[in-house]
């Protein structure tokens, strides 16, 4: 069961679509247990299809813009089945008792898909308050400057500022210093869709990746300007006298294109060129392959053989390997052979985008950070015009034959790399799944349109929210706890050797909503859970230490006063004198080491006898005198102690949030720092200051606990208005003494 994209939604702020707004007695069959049926109600709103199971207290929310297909299946004795599949691999079959209801629901669902770009979800989406319609500007120039461009070999060209030369390229492009306008115009006319060779990545050793589309060479056509442009690219790199042209298509496809006046470079016309095919199949083959994967995932109780054979015959991992192999070849050519590489496929916006972005990711550690990865996507996928609208089928009018999982394959190859190098990437699996989801959801404007110019025409930056802003605001949810920025893999070029056995099937992506077959524990998630829990306990421990220090100081003062009165007596027995009160206190109460092990998160063998010899550092003395001004009452201390959960519910359980939404592998489970239970993002408040924490930081707390904390806080504030510190200190002392009495 799935709940998804429910941020800030409730039934109340969505408009119901169906007349009576619901279809009752709908049956859903559990795919992994044929005998288990759930009976519930379907609600249809302007944004979601919602299935509510009142007995199991579960809700399934499906965003309309994520629906891939809604198919009416042949009527059975039980009713009329309607199968809904989403673009993020959720599949559900509703059995609706009355055929009329099923027909109506089916027709309505098909109508709800946006008929044009202007009707897409991003223009309706009301984000939570913490998100603003602010677009952190992505400046292509900044990213090139980071790579040291322009320089003596490369210059910036604004001849595409009105998208005249190539309407799917960015307004500014980077080309060799020695090129002329004539060369660029000539080359763009000789390349499919005007996509001439331009710089996309410059390695510190001077070798570069340039990208373009296929030449319109046919069987024998040639273009002098294009040949000159390639020679200029070759000359930018003094380390090598030759360069590669990588055609990422299978040879047969490239040859077939010649008949249509397209094709590939003739080595006889381009001197010092090494031409090579790195065969990756086309969008149609990839679409078919993914469908076979999904069919395998949807099989009902398959045998081991059936399941593995079905996955194998999809050839999906073979295609993933082909993309990765091409990227590794390019990275090796750049880093080891120090040669320039020009990459193209047919139009240079699918396989070329995959290979250029993945080879850059292997070559440059910066792209393995969250910020750098964003830059990589902005540059290779958004600026250079991957057709997100067509490939993801954003609108009702999209051509089915144009849809293809090209971006998904890129995301999956990145995931495969994170499995090979778990410490090299700053982001986690959840980030990759989220990225894929939102390339389809149209919740944010980033992945709408087919190129930069489309997004400009659609006014996405003025009228929609940015996905990157959402990531930035929730960045802790997307961090890989295993990331070690200084480790070798995180700071150097990655050149893995990929064997067939290296690649894994991505269960958390394709079986993500099949909670019952996924592993019960996920190591990175469990680690994040432990890190958070340790942080909460450390913070709480620091407060407890502070309270103990205060208590000790009070007791010292009490002792001091006692000593005063006793030393004033003429016949006092013993050696105590006025000059040694602190030593006396130390004998009674050993001082705690302030630079505690709690801060480092390491449990050392605590040995009280060792610690007694350690004097508090000077700054501590200062701190103590500051802290002592703020002594709380015993009630307040009890309140502090109760505001922190010492035990947290373990990460793997439960499968549902208390609000009835199911958890899936892409969703972060949050532990409430006060009660320790698991909650989904909509049940958690992030902005609560817990009295049991030493630091003033904001903690995640469930809504019930947040209410309770807030009302208790206001009660404390009202009951102790402007008490002097002396008063507070006296109260604490008296409270303590009362406590002692109680103990006795
Ligand atoms: Zn709670
Ligand atoms: Zn919840």
TrEMBL record:
Polar residues composition bias: residue spans: 732-744
Q: Which family does the record claim for this protein? A: Belongs to the protein-tyrosine phosphatase family. Non-receptor class myotubularin subfamily.
Q: Does the keyword Oxidoreductase apply?
A: no
Say which domain of life the source belongs to. Eukaryota
Q: Name one GO biological process term.
A: phosphatidylinositol dephosphorylation
The UniProt record lists the FYVE-type domain at 659-710
Official protein name in the record: phosphatidylinositol-3,5-bisphosphate 3-phosphatase
Q: Tell me the SUPFAM superfamilies matching this sequence.
A: (Phosphotyrosine protein) phosphatases II, FYVE/PHD zinc finger, PH domain-like
What cellular component GO annotations does this protein have? cytoplasm; membrane
- Domain Myotubularin phosphatase, by residue range, is 134-510
Region of interest (Disordered), residue spans = 559-618, 716-744
A GO molecular function term, named singly, is: zinc ion binding
Query: Can you name the source organism?
Result: Adineta steineri
- Give me the residues that bind substrate, please: 282-283, 345-351
Provide the active-site residues from the annotation: 345 (phosphocysteine intermediate)
EC annotation from Swiss-Prot or TrEMBL: 3.1.3.95
């Amino acid at each position: 069961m799935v709940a998804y994209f429910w941020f800030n939604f409730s039934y109340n702020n969505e408009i119901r679509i169906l007349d009576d707004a619901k279809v009752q007695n709908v049956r859903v069959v559990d795919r992994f247990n044929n005998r288990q049926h759930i009976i519930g109600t379907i609600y249809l709103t302007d944004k979601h299809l919602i299935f509510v199971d009142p007995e199991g207290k579960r809700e399934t929310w499906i965003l309309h813009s994520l629906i891939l297909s809604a198919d009416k299946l042949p009527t059975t004795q039980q009713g009329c089945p309607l199968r809904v599949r989403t673009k993020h691999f959720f599949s559900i079959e509703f059995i609706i008792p009355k055929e009329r209801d099923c027909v109506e629901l089916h027709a309505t669902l098909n109508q709800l898909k946006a008929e044009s770009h202007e009707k897409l979800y991003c223009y309706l989406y009301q984000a939570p308050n913490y998100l603003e319609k602010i677009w952190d500007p992505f400046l292509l120039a900044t990213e090139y400057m980071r790579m040291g461009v322009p320089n003596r070999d490369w210059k910036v060209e604004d001849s595409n500022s009105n998208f005249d030369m190539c309407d799917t390229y960015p307004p500014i492009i980077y080309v060799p210093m020695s090129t002329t306008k004539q060369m660029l115009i000539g080359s763009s006319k000789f390349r499919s869709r005007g996509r001439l060779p331009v710089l996309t990545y410059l390695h510190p050793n001077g070798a570069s990746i340039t990208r373009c589309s296929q030449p319109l060479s046919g069987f024998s056509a040639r273009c002098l300007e294009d040949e000159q442009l390639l020679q200029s690219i070759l000359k930018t790199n003094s380390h090598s006298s030759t360069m590669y042209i990588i055609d990422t298509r299978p040879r047969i496809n490239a040859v077939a294109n010649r008949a249509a006046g397209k094709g590939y470079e003739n080595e006889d016309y381009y001197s010092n060129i090494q031409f090579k095919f790195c065969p990756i199949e086309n969008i149609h083959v990839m679409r078919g392959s993914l469908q076979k994967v999904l069919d395998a995932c949807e099989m009902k109780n398959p045998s081991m053989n059936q399941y593995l054979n079905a996955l194998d015959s999809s050839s999906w991992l073979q295609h993933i390997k082909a993309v990765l192999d091409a990227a590794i070849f390019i990275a090796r050519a750049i880093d080891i052979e120090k040669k320039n590489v020009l990459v193209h496929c047919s139009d240079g916006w699918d396989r070329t985008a995959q290979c250029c972005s993945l080879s850059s990711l292997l070559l440059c550690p910066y792209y393995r950070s969250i910020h750098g990865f964003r830059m990589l996507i902005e540059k290779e996928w958004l600026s250079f015009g991957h057709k997100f609208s067509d490939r993801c089928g954003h609108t009702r009018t999209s051509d089915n034959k144009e849809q293809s999982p090209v971006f998904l394959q890129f995301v999956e190859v990145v995931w495969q790399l994170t499995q090979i190098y778990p410490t090299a990437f700053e982001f986690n699996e959840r980030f990759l799944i989220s990225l894929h989801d939102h390339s389809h959801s149209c919740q944010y404007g980033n992945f709408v349109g087919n190129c930069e110019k489309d997004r400009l025409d659609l006014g996405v930056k003025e009228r929609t929210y940015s996905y990157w802003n959402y990531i930035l605001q929730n960045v802790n949810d997307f961090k890989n706890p295993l990331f070690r920025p200084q480790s070798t893999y995180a700071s150097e070029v990655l050149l893995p050797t990929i064997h067939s056995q290296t690649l894994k099937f991505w269960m958390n992506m394709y079986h993500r909503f099949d909670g019952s077959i996924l592993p019960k524990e996920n190591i990175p998630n469990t680690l994040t859970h432990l890190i958070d829990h340790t942080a909460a306990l450390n913070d709480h421990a620091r407060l407890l230490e502070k309270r103990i220090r205060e208590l000790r100081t009070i007791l010292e003062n009490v002792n001091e006063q006692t000593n005063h009165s006793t030393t004033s007596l003429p016949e006092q027995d013993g050696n105590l004198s006025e000059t040694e009160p602190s030593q006396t206190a130390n004998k009674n109460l050993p001082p705690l080491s302030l630079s505690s092990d709690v801060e480092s998160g390491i449990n050392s063998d605590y040995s009280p006898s060792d610690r007694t010899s350690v004097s508090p550092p000077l700054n501590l003395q200062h701190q103590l005198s500051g802290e002592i001004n703020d002594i709380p009452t015993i009630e307040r201390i009890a309140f502090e102690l109760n505001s922190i959960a010492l035990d947290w519910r373990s990460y793997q359980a439960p499968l549902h949030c208390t609000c009835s939404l199911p958890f899936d592998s892409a969703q972060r489970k949050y532990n409430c720092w006060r009660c320790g239970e698991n909650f989904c993002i909509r049940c958690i408040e992030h902005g609560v200051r817990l009295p049991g924490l030493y630091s003033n930081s904001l903690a995640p707390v469930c809504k019930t606990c947040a209410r309770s904390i807030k009302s208790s806080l206001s009660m404390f504030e009202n009951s102790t208005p402007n008490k002097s510190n002396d008063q507070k200190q006296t109260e604490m002392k008296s409270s303590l003494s009362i406590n002692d009495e109680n103990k006795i």
